[in-house]
Write a structure and sequence with these properties.
This protein is mostly helical. Helices cover 75% and strands 0% of the residues. Keywords: Ribonucleoprotein, Ribosomal protein.
Length: 16
């Protein structure tokens, strides 16, 4: 599922 990929992307994006 892409949900897991989105979660990882969100986590990386939240690393501002």
């Amino acid at each position: 599922m892409a949900k897991e990929k989105i979660r990882i992307r969100l986590k990386a994006y939240d690393h501002r």
